[in-house]
């Protein structure tokens, strides 16, 4: 390859922007050119900003970023990154530093926020509505006309995250074992319990304990699938899903109480579990508030935002 061809290739590869949407269950990424056209996309293991508090967590996140660099490297050199990461509060430089190291970029080429900000901008213009996002966790978000981010919920699984996948799974297992306390062997009459025990590998308490206390938040959240699949025949499972919708409505109504009635969009994988969740959410919102469902493509939005940032870099 001639020097002129090498220079031309370097110019082309410098025009690639990477968007990252990282959550507890899965990390999605997309590449865009300077014209904001999506070039490629893929997935990686889930991660959260909370992992960087421990050495093993930091190592796991670093490995995921390194794998992203390898996966995107076949498309050229990434010149800008916009990352939305669950649990990121803006008070740490560890994640931006990791991305800069793995992608060999200067820090000014990298913008990191929580994942909900990017999801919001994928659906609403600032000041025009509220986003309720329910995946493994749950949160309501509002970016006002001045660009300030406001939240309700989204405070993590130890405090709340009610209505999210982890919360649904935790509620199910809690009710399952409470029933066992009162009537051992009751699980055999519960479709929900049968499905959950099948997924975790057995009906012994030691197996449940090991799963709950040693698996990741995302892995536990996947048990919500068992709750949803049992709901039509198991009234306890149906009640949990209906309560999930009620909890999500509470987030939206909290925003309306603070900033006035505005349209609400529901996004995230919880809405795909069972119609009862969305039906309950609608029933628990004030009648004047419109609700629509949205399939958020936040990694595409992040890639387009990264492309805009790339155009503004010197």
The CATH topology label of the largest domain is Nucleotidyltransferase, domain 5
SSE order in H/E notation? HEEEHEHEHEEEHHHHHHEHEH
Question: What is the number of beta strands?
Answer: 10
Can you name the CATH architecture of the largest domain? 2-Layer Sandwich
* Major sheet characteristics: 5 strands, mixed
Class by SSE composition: alpha/beta
The portion of residues assigned to helices is 40-55%
Q: In the residues, how many domains can be counted?
A: 2
Determine the strand fraction and express it as a percent band: 15-25%
Mean pLDDT: 92
CATH superfamily of the largest domain: ATPase, nucleotide binding domain
Helical segment count: 12
What does this structure look like?
The protein is globular and about 70 Å long. It folds into 2 domains: 3-113 and 298-312, ATPase, nucleotide binding domain (Nucleotidyltransferase, domain 5), CATH 3.30.420.40; 125-283, ATPase, nucleotide binding domain (Nucleotidyltransferase, domain 5, 2-Layer Sandwich). It contains 12 helices and 10 strands. The protein has a 5-stranded mixed sheet with strand order 3-2-1-4-5. It has a 5-stranded mixed sheet with strand order 8-7-6-9-10, with helices on both faces. The protein is α/β, with parallel strands linked by helices. It starts with a helix and ends with a helix. The model is unreliable at 1-13 (pLDDT under 50). α4 packs across α12 and α5 (165-182) crosses α10. β6 (130-134) and β7 form a beta hairpin.
Feature tags:
314 residues; alpha/beta; Nucleotidyltransferase, domain 5; 2 domains; 5-stranded mixed beta sheet; 12 helices; 47% helix; disordered N terminus
């Amino acid at each position: 390859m001639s020097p002129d061809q090498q220079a031309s290739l370097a110019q082309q590869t410098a025009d690639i922007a990477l968007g990252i949407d990282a959550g507890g269950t899965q990390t999605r990424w997309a590449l865009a050119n300077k014209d904001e056209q999506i070039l490629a996309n893929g997935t990686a293991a889930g991660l959260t900003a909370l992992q960087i508090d421990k050495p093993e967590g930091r190592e796991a996140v670093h490995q995921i970023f390194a794998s992203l660099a390898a996966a995107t490297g076949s498309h050229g050199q990434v010149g800008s990154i916009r990352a939305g990461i669950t649990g990121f509060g803006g008070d740490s430089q560890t994640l931006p530093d990791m991305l800069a190291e793995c992608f060999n970029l200067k820090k000014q080429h990298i913008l990191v926020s929580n994942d909900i900000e990017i999801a919001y901008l994928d659906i609403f213009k600032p000041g025009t509505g509220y986003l309720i996002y329910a995946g493994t966790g749950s949160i309501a978000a509002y970016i006002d006309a001045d660009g300030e981010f406001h939240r309700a919920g989204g405070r993590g699984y130890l405090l709340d995250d009610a209505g999210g996948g982890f919360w649904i799974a935790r509620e199910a297992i809690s009710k399952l074992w409470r029933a066992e306390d009162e009537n051992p062997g009751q699980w055999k009459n519960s479709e929900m319990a049968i499905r959950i025990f099948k997924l975790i590998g057995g009906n012994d308490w030691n197996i449940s304990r090991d799963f709950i206390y040693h698996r990741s938040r995302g892995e536990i959240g996947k048990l919500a699938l068992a709750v949803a699949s049992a709901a039509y025949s198991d009234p306890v499972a149906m009640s949990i899903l209906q309560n999930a919708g009620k909890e999500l409505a509470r987030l939206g109504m909290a925003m309306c109480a603070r900033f006035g009635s505005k349209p609400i969009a529901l996004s995230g994988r919880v809405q795909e579990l069972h119609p009862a969740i969305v039906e309950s959410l609608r029933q628990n919102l004030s009648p004047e508030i419109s609700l629509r469902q949205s399939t958020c493509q936040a990694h595409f939005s992040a890639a387009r935002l990264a492309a805009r940032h790339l155009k503004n870099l010197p």
